[in-house]
Amino acid sequence: MNAPKSTAPGRRAPHRLDPTGPCPHAVNARLLAEGAVTPVLLPGDIDGMAVLGHDALRDFLSHPDVAKGPQHFTALSEGRIPDGWPLRTFATLPGMMTADGADHRRLRALVSSAFTARRVEELRPRVATVAAGLLDGLAEAAERGDGVADLRRHYALPLPLGVICELLGVDRAHQDRLHELSALVVATDIGPDRAVAVNRELLELLTAIAAAKAADPRDDLTSALIAARDEDGDRLGPHELIGTLLLLIVAGHETTLNLVTNAVRALCSHRDQLALVLDGRASWSDVVEETLRWDSPVSYFPFRYPTRDLTVDGTLIPRGTPVLAGYAAAGRDTKAHGPDADRFDLTRTATVKHLSLGHGPHYCLGAPLARMEAAVALETLFTRFPGLDLAVPESELPRHSGFVGNSVRTLPVRPGG
């Protein structure tokens, strides 16, 4: 690994982000001790910043002089970001994730008209049914594996992936490949040639899915997005539609996958907290919220750009700098969550809400779905297998590939009776 760039006297040295994605919490604690905002080196030695402190991140996410549009990314505008850059999709994907102002409100309104709270609540019985069926598969896998099965593979992944694909009307035959491609899109340790190939294949697959829905509309979200119009009669453009589908598929299952995985790890490592829920002294919703704070499913989320030189918590962020939202760090910020912020505690009397699902105009549109899915998944799992436990020490679990997502690649468990 290359050494960090030299810095001027008195200026904070940039933190080189590890593209392989080790556990972020120890590094975050060290960086937070030095300040709420830190310079970072992104892949390819691109200069960036990360906002780690809770209060600083909350203010930054809603600041009127902070934008998401790629035209504000100085290095991209200057041609210094190659096509195979592993984070390029986050910067250039057409749709809500890279839109600002009126354009963002237009796109969000079009998606919201099809992605309603009613649709989410109507999915609850279906989520419970799917979860119960997947537990049959988990038990069978454990029988074949001397009592051990990978919960991430057999439960935490297929539940949200199946739900979002069902909501979008995506054929089951495409689901495994969509996950494989989605995981590679958010990975930060992927080579440039493969990154280009992955993005090309994913866009081609989503274009084919959209074309099939346009030719034969059904009662699903993709068909609704194709048909949806705003009050001025505008539809989603072709590139906006594909970008929206990609965002919904990736965010609609990767985040919940990590959330469920991290919650199970937390409960298995804190049996006293699990006992509180099983005894009715805490709720599954409490588990979801504390996991979101304590072990956010997203570590560093790209990108936002100041549209002018901006001082955040005493640190200058130059105009056009790519800034990462440090959700995992903010969740354990002792200034916001108290001196025991690194403790998993379902009885915590939170006076400050976590930011793990965003804040401001780009607050996660799928937050109600993620919360519902995770709560149902955890209740169904531990109701059937209250003695479920990790099959290996947590320190031996292989980490997620990349510094965007925050979780482990596998979660071997012993379901028990």
From TrEMBL:
It holds the Pfam family p450. It comes from the Bacteria. The keyword Nucleotidyltransferase does not apply. Keywords: Heme, Iron, Metal-binding, Monooxygenase, Oxidoreductase. GO terms for molecular function: heme binding; iron ion binding; monooxygenase activity; oxidoreductase activity, acting on paired donors, with incorporation or reduction of molecular oxygen. Residues 1-20 are annotated as: Disordered. Belongs to the cytochrome P450 family. This is Putative cytochrome P450 hydroxylase. It comes from Streptomyces venezuelae (strain ATCC 10712 / CBS 650.69 / DSM 40230 / JCM 4526 / NBRC 13096 / PD 04745). The lineage of its organism: Bacteria, Bacillati, Actinomycetota, Actinomycetes, Kitasatosporales.
